[in-house]
Sequence to fold (167 residues):
Amino acid sequence: MIGWAEEMAQLAAEFTRDFEARHGFEPGDNYVRLVDRQARPSIVQAGAPLPESLAEFYGVVAEVGLPDVHYGFFVESVESVLAGAGTVHPAKAVGAVEGDIVVFGTNGGGDLIAMTTDERVYMMSGASGPWPVLDVDEADIRAAFRNLTEFLAFLRTHLRDAVADLR
Fold:
């Protein structure tokens, strides 16, 4: 996980540095922030209710903001994820995706990025409003990933492609 995070932080910095020269306007705040383990106690280590791979992720990554990559990608801080579960974001899905979910991010198109208890990751639409349950139709699923590793590879590919486009 640390290798992914360090590479992404470096790519985000490179992308931001070269963005204005290519596009003619300043980029948004594109970043991958690593956890400062000495600055705060880890909620993850305190037994937060997260799937194992997401807890591992949050043990390394504090948050991700890539507003200028593809449609934009945002991975919220673990504090925001836990505070928003069931209030700001749904904690359960019914329909094409069934069961408890942890919404941990969004994209610039308004889709939620959520993990199910079996650790699949979905990008799903139809989620405006603070509802505890999300009703998901097949058409609402924008992308599905077998696990967090596959989703993180998807993010890395988009950022690598965005950096390559600046050259």
Summary: The first helix runs from residue 2 to 23.
